[in-house]
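Posting this for the archive.
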Amino acid sequence: MKADATVFSVAKRGNSATENMDACWPAETTRLHGPTVRLAMADGATEHFLSKRWAAELVRVMARSPRRTVTTNQWFASALSAACASWLPALRKFHHDREQQGRPLRWYEISKLWEGAAATILAVFFQDDDEHGGTGTWHAAAIGDTNLFWATAGGMTTFPIEHSEDFNDTPPLVTSVGMTEATLRPRVRLVSGTWVAGQRFVLATDALAKWILGRMECGADPWEQVNAALADPSAFMEWVGNKRELREMHNDDVTLLNLELH
C-alpha cells in the first residue's frame, strides 16, 4: 500500500505555532507505504496543564500500536490506559526537572499538574489486502470530537460526529490521570470499512470538522474550498484566517490530514 498524507496545522489566532495544542501522526506531509498505514490526531484541552504534550504522546502511542488496537473498545481503551500509566513517571520527571532548573512550579501549577492533561484522540489504521493490490480494510477508533471524513459512492461520510450542532465545549476526553480501561471503554466509538486505490480520507480537529459539516448540511460543497486551501501551508493559513474573520469558523487550533490511497 502507498498513500500520500498532506498535513497542515494553524494555531489559534493570537497564539504562536508552539502554542498549538493539536498533534498529528504523521506530523508533516509525507508518503506512507507498507502493509499497514497508521494515522492519528489529537486535540489537547486548553484548560488542562501539559495537554499539548499529552496530545503528542497519544498520537505517538497510536503510531506504534498493533493493528488490533482500533478494532474493539477493549483494545483501544487498553492502549490508552497504558499511556495514562506511563504518564505518571513523566509528570514526576517534569516536576523534578523544573526544580533542578531553578524554576519550581507554583502551587496552582502543581495542583493542575496532578489533575492531569486531557485530549481527544482519533486513530485510523489501514490494512493492505494480501491477495489483491489496491484494496484492503480500515478501522477507526475515537474518543472526542476529532473527526474522520471519507469518500463513498454517496459522497463524504463522517465519524464520530455526524451533525455540526453536536459539537460543544465538553467533548469526551482522555485524561492522563485517574482513568482506567474500565472508565475509558464506554467513551470509545468505532467504525470500519474497506478502501480502494484512489479513495480519500480526511482527519480534522473540531473547528474545521464543524465548518465542513455545516457546509454539507446547507447543501454546499466544502471540498472545493478545502482542496484549494491544500495548495500549500500559506494558502491553508490564509484560508483558515479568512474563515475566522468571517466568523464562519471558531477561533481554535485547526489541523487537517488529507490521505490519498494508491
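The CA atoms of residues 42 and 121 lie 4 Å apart. The chain has one domain: 2-261.
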